[in-house]
Design a protein that fits this description.
The complex is a heterodimer of chains A (about 475) and B (about 110).
Chain A: H1 3-26, H2 33-39, H3 46-57, H4 60-73, H5 75-81, H6 85-105, H7 111-119, H8 122-155, H9 159-207, H10 211-221, H11 237-248, H12 255-258, H13 267-298, H14 308-316, H15 319-357, H16 363-385, H17 392-416, H18 422-446, H19 456-473
Chain B: H1 16-46, E1 55-56, E2 59-60, H2 61-84
Antiparallel strand pairs in B: 1-2
Helix pairs in contact in B: 1-2
Classes of the chains: A mainly alpha (about 475), B mainly alpha (about 110).
């Protein structure tokens, strides 16, 4: 498309590679390959911890799908997006120090390690591994499609070649550098997201002639755009509020977030991350979605939601600056994909291979397998993403909700309720996933049950299942 | 959520867990407060007809209070709580390491589970 746009993007990708290599150099220093490759040796400081959480969480939907929907729906969708501010403090506070302490005590490297030790049950481990592999695989594919599409729209390359560039970029540093490389690149990518968001917001406001002028244009077009109820008035309070579960407090149940909550160095790092995470999440979500709404009067008539941000950036900014700004969604997608890739890989290597197939594998063998599995997974996802499914945001949310319904109670009540046991955990996971899938199909056919998002009812049902399962079969207090 | 009470057997829960439990409850309380603030302003003020909205910094009032002020307020509360309420505890595996009070010198734990 434009060489001035491509150059900043290329520089960004090269910088990311550099970080991956530096991190991989450090990897031999602390010993214990698994701990280092999948958890960065539990050495994360506050800033990197906050940024890797924000960046992992902020994905294609925060930078492309979300603002695209805000463009169509108006302020109601920004209100919905702001339910995510809670993730900035909630995940770290609720999993908190107890999770960090127990993870160290059990020597847990993955979330499944923790569950396995807490519930003393291989069945819990294998069920979790299956859930993670299936759901995160679909999430990952959706994100890769997003990454490929973004490069396609920026460079004018064919989708296949665009996807190829994306895949190679991610694979190189994840495969070689492991968690530490992922976390460090996330920190850089998070910083790019903050700066890119701010530049683009200013650009859009200037192009629209100031906030009051933009607001007048919106009111002239459709006054409902500035209400909490959406452009056609169908966004109900119950539906929007149910996103507090899906993208707010329920995020506690996501394995890619939980694993980060066991990776920090000290209490002080966690405290810093709380503050930075809250501010950065709120800043990005508020501003990105404002950009989506403000873009409407500036560039009317965009019908593909995902294209709003790339188009508006190219419209209101000089090309070189647009290149820098568009590195932000790129960064968001890459930082989500890299974490998911590593997590699925850890589920296969650590939780399936080492637990059930070959527990006595040597360090060298584990290293080969880890790198090999990560690489092969990347290639499979690449092949899947070649035939891209539509509606990226919904695929992503499907995976999100399914995992939350499965894991939220086994993790949270496993930490804080001494009577929680493996029967409760297994029942809760099965109930959560099965009811999620059932209600998903019900909702797509008949409209939302009780007017709330799909995730709501499965989360309630899995809570009931957890309590009943734990108390009914064997009532015995667990000693942490 | 029942916090660990004294069990009948001579089993002493890790003293650090008391702090951890309190901080987890703070997280829940913050989220509830956050939700009420967000919901109250959004639907309390936002349910009026759009002609009655006033505009602050160009933004509709319900949105300004619910999302902009709400976000800034939550950030400030988190800063205050982190600074004055949360406690620094060592995180290493051995709960008896009370002497190791400095959180910066967390020793590496590569030993397998005891």
């Amino acid at each position: 498309m434009n060489i001035q746009v491509i150059i900043p993007l290329a520089i960004f990708l090269i910088a990311i590679f550099a970080i991956g290599f530096i991190a991989s150099k450090q990897m031999s220093s602390t010993g214990g390959f698994l701990q280092e490759y999948f958890l960065g040796g539990r050495e994360l400081g506050g800033f990197v911890l906050a940024m890797t959480m924000v960046a992992t969480y902020g994905s294609a939907s925060s930078f492309l799908g979300g603002p695209g929907t805000a463009y169509t729906v108006g302020f109601g969708w920004i209100l919905l997006a702001m339910t995510q501010v809670v993730t900035g403090y909630f995940v770290l506070l609720v999993l908190g120090k107890k999770f960090a302490i127990l993870a160290r005590k059990y020597n847990a490297v993955t979330m499944i390690d923790f569950l396995k030790a807490r519930y003393n049950s291989p069945a819990v481990a294998i069920l979790s591994a299956i859930a993670i592999i299936i759901f995160l695989f679909s999430a990952m594919t959706a994100q890769w499609v997003g990454g490929g599409r973004l490069i396609e729209s920026l460079t004018g390359l064919q989708y296949t070649s665009a996807l190829f560039i994306f895949a190679i970029s991610v694979l190189v540093y994840v495969t070689i550098g492991g968690f530490r490389a992922v976390a460090l690149t996330d920190a850089v990518q998070g910083a790019i997201m903050v700066v890119g968001t701010l530049i683009l917001l200013i650009g859009v406001i200037i192009a629209g002639g100031g906030v009051p002028a933009i607001m007048q244009d919106l009111l002239n077009e459709n006054p409902r755009l500035v209400t909490p109820f959406g452009a056609d008035g169908t966004l109900t309070a119950a539906y929007v509020s149910s996103f507090w579960i899906l993208v707010g407090v329920g995020v506690v149940g996501l394995p890619q977030m939980a694993v980060r909550a066991m990776s920090y160095k000290s209490s002080r790092a966690m405290h810093r991350a709380l503050v930075i995470g809250t501010i950065v999440t709120g800043f990005i979500m508020l501003n990105m979605h404002l950009i989506g709404v403000f873009a409407r009067p500036v560039m009317p008539g965009i019908d593909v939601g995902d294209k709003v941000i790339p188009l508006i950036a190219l419209e209101v900014l000089p090309p070189w600056l647009a290149g820098i700004v568009l590195a932000a969604p790129m960064a968001a997608i890459m930082s989500t994909v890299d974490s998911l890739l590593l997590l699925v890989s850890s589920a296969i290597v650590k939780d399936v291979y080492l637990n059930f197939i070959k527990p006595e594998a040597t360090e060298k063998r584990v290293k080969q397998i880890s790198i090999g599995v990560t690489g092969i997974l990347g290639i499979i996802v690449f092949l899947l993403a070649l035939q891209p499914p539509d509606l990226l945001i919904f695929l992503n949310l499907f995976a999100f909700g399914g995992l939350e319904a499965a894991f939220i109670w086994p993790i949270v009540l496993g930490l804080y309720w001494k009577y929680g046991n493996k029967y409760g955990a297994i029942l809760s996971m099965i109930t959560g996933i099965a009811s999620y899938i059932a209600i998903h199909f019900y909702n797509t056919t008949y409209g939302n049950l009780l007017g709330v998002h799909t995730v709501t009812i499965p989360v309630v049902l899995s809570l009931i299942a957890y309590i009943i399962g734990s108390l009914a079969i064997q009532r015995k207090a667990f000693r942490f | 959520m029942p916090v660990n009470q004294t069990p009948p057997e001579p089993y002493k829960p890790d003293p650090r867990f008391k702090i951890a439990h309190k901080e987890a409850l703070i997280g829940v309380a913050l989220a509830i407060f956050n939700f009420i603030w967000w919901y109250g302003f959004a639907y309390g003020l936002g349910s009026r007809p759009p002609e009655e909205y006033t505009y602050i910094l160009g933004l509709p009032d319900w949105f300004f209070y619910s999302c902009v002020v709400g976000f800034i307020l939550m950030s400030v509360i988190v800063i205050i709580i982190t600074k004055y309420v949360l406690k620094e505890v060592p995180l290493d595996a051995d709960p008896n390491l009370d002497r190791n009070a400095d959180p910066n010198v967390t020793p590496k734990e590569e030993s397998p589970t005891k």
